[in-house]
Amino acid sequence: MANAKVEINFIVGPNRYVRDSNLLEFPYLQAVVTETLRLHPPSPFLIPRKAESDDAEILGYPIPENAQILVNAWAIGRDPTVWENPERFEPERFLGRDTETIGKDFEMIPFGGGLRICPGISLALRIVPLMLASLIYSFEWHPKNVKNEFVPEDLNMDETFGFTLHKTEPIYSDTLERAYNYFY
Ligand code: HEM
């Protein structure tokens, strides 16, 4: 977050708003978003498929006709044969890499792939960084543990699986509460 904040402050300067035209100037922030989508894909099993015939085979496993198929996008993004230190959050691994390859090279498929790839991918890859950049630029974020201390290692990063993936224990933030009280 500190790296992203330095990058955003450098480009946006004081007393202004983050604009969508700034996005190409935030390579680190873009890498943070891509790394987040790799480790925490919001749709961990994509949208279920159905095998339409009985002659399908995947890696030698026969797939019965009408079987419901879930693609584990969460596991693909953490495949140790593809990713170095797969469990580590390292945005640097994406610096200099083109996000246009998401969904095409199948190393990570947070938006699915092929004919039924998420049609909102282009919008999402602009709106999410814009929103995140605005939040980082406009607020100080200090996630606290139950003892009201900021200890990054204490953050519970467990996830609950379902049609969408979410944090089991929400991040509490004074800033979030202040922002909420301000608006409501
Ligand atoms: C970070 C944001 C988003 C993520 C991670 C995401 C992810 C996905 C995934 C994984 C699928 C299933 C693809 C598959 O099964 O192969 C999907 C489908 C879809 N998404 Fe998204 N999506 C996002 C944002 C959006 C937005 C902004 C829109 C629309 C404006 C959108 C519209 C759709 C639609 C209509 C489908 C169904 C496509 C079909 O079945 O043919 N998504 N999305």
Automatic annotation (TrEMBL):
Superkingdom of source: Eukaryota
Q: Which Pfam families match?
A: p450
Going by the UniProt record, its keywords in alphabetical order are: Heme, Iron, Metal-binding, Monooxygenase, Oxidoreductase
Instruction: Determine if Transmembrane helix is one of this entry's keywords.
Output: no
Which family does the record claim for this protein? Belongs to the cytochrome P450 family.
The entry's protein name is Cytochrome P450 76C1-like
Organism whose genome encodes this protein: Camelina sativa
Cite the source lineage: Eukaryota, Viridiplantae, Streptophyta, Embryophyta, Tracheophyta
